Amino acid sequence: FPVTIQAGYMGDWPLYLEGILTGDSYAFRFWSFIQNHPTSKDITVLFITNDDGRHSDGWSNGFVSHGDNCDGCRHINFMALGAGIRKGHIDTTSYSQNDIASTIARILGIQMPHGTGQVMEGIGEDVFTERLAVPLLPEVMVWLTDEVEIEYVKV
């Protein structure tokens, strides 16, 4: 979210933490929406991640920036929840961002012959390693508006 990113680059730790909490609340609201809607309840998988890490404490200028090979820059946060995902499981396997795409493709039953990532087998239940029998719903779209209001739209 822009406020979190800007606060990080400005070195505003309190605003940065506030942005993280706001982002967490948006994720909770979005997940609540998914679980309270009959077309998505209990059949949806949600992945939440960030696009880059941040410098580790004591490295360069700390959380203010990123972009080198320090430990903090090489790690991102990742959370998966929903249908076929192990509840309460913490997988300590090392993955890359390419693995997220390969995992999503597996869940959707899509072949990625040129993909370079591995499927994140450790996050899923037994059914996950085969393929979730989840119908795709092309007539349903969920939008997050600028105000982060959740809308349900039939297209």
What would you report as the Rg, rounded to the nearest angstrom? Answer: 18 Å
Total helical segments:
4
Average pLDDT, all residues: 79
Helix content: 25-40%
Proportion of residues in β-strands:
5-15%
Shape: globular
Low-pLDDT runs of 5+ residues are 129-155
* Euclidean distance between termini CA atoms: 27 Å
Strand arrangement, largest sheet? 1-2
Q: Which structural class do the helices and strands define?
A: alpha+beta
Q: Strand count, sense and closure of the main sheet?
A: 2 strands, antiparallel
- Summarize the helix and strand pattern as letters: HHEEHHEE
DSSP strand tally: 4
Oligomer: single chain
Give a description of the structure.
- By secondary structure, the protein is an alpha+beta fold.
- Helix content is 32%, strand content 13%.
- A two-stranded antiparallel ribbon has the order 1-2. The chain has a two-stranded antiparallel sheet with strand order 3-4.
- α1 packs antiparallel against α2.
- The protein is globular, with a radius of gyration of 18 Å.
- The C terminus is likely disordered.
List keywords for this structure.
13% strand; two-stranded antiparallel ribbon; alpha+beta; 155 residues; 4 strands
